[in-house]
Amino acid sequence: MDKDECTKRTKKRVVARAYQKDINKTPSQKHWNSRDISLAKVESPYNFRDPVYTRYCSYMPASIKVNFNRDFEMPGTEVITYGWGHKNYFRQRADLNDHNARFANYASTVVIDKELCKKMLVGHSDLQLNVEYFLICTAGEGSLDESGKMSQGPATPRAFNGSTPGIYQSVWSRDNLNNRKTNHTDFTDMRRHGPCQNDHGGPLVTWIGGREYIIGVATGFQVNKHMQCVAPYLYTSTFSNGEFIYCVLRNTRRSSQCDIQSEQKGYEIVEEDISWNITSNIARSAHLEDMTPVVDNTNVKKKTNISEPWKNDNYFLNLRARNHTDDKT
């Protein structure tokens, strides 16, 4: 972000976050990706008409709507996914090179059937419940371009471009951001249709009535014996977490549904403030990249979730995958 003039001049500090904490856990359920989504609040609202965008950016940004309708995450739905992470390979522990992309990349892909997704996740029976209730699965090449136009004709649901699902090493959920160096290693540029390392939290987008909607947030993927990121690619569904999203965004408008006891729904909403440690020298230079964010746990606010009045409403928000290192309960 700090190497690009556009993001360097328009980025904002995150000052609060909200996430879901499970109340009722089952032994057969993988906890880290059951509700793998959070909402972040920045220090001030974005002004998408700011002239800085026309001067330093290649585009004018716009808000994106959030999907709360199951119909738009059904098998066969054409989607686009975005990210700045590795294009193909999951970095091994001994590799200290930085394989992240310099610019955002996108991939066109297709939502696949949940039962097919479960079969492709061979050796991961603990993910079955999460796939069923919280996740969207994608695989194969899609037909949308980055503007939402069909580029290859009508789509049909497919996985691995028609090949047979195989057995893979693992489903990875955590970014490995430590020990970065700039030494370069060349890899064969293979086409990929989903997220890889450090793409977690990236949006899964489709077009509804000619407008972009976010329907999911990148959560995980599989890694084969060659350390390649492969399908099925997993995304946390905005529809499946619509209660959480709605309740947090209605923070200033009380709703009876938001007061339902968390025990009845199986989770509670936790809101945390984030402070920034700023030295006097840094404060004078006002360089955000030199500041360290600190989660303030002394003023944690907890809410309960709601029922389902959110399905026909449209809301705007920034989504980011939950910090898994904080998920130890």
From TrEMBL:
Q: Which Gene3D superfamilies match?
A: Trypsin-like serine proteases
The protein's matches in InterPro entries, at most eight in alphabetical order, are given as:
Peptidase_S1_PA, Peptidase_S1_PA_chymotrypsin
What protein name does the entry list?
Uncharacterized protein LOC118270184 isoform X2
User: What species is this protein from?
Assistant: Spodoptera frugiperda (Fall armyworm)
Point out the gene that encodes the protein.
LOC118270184
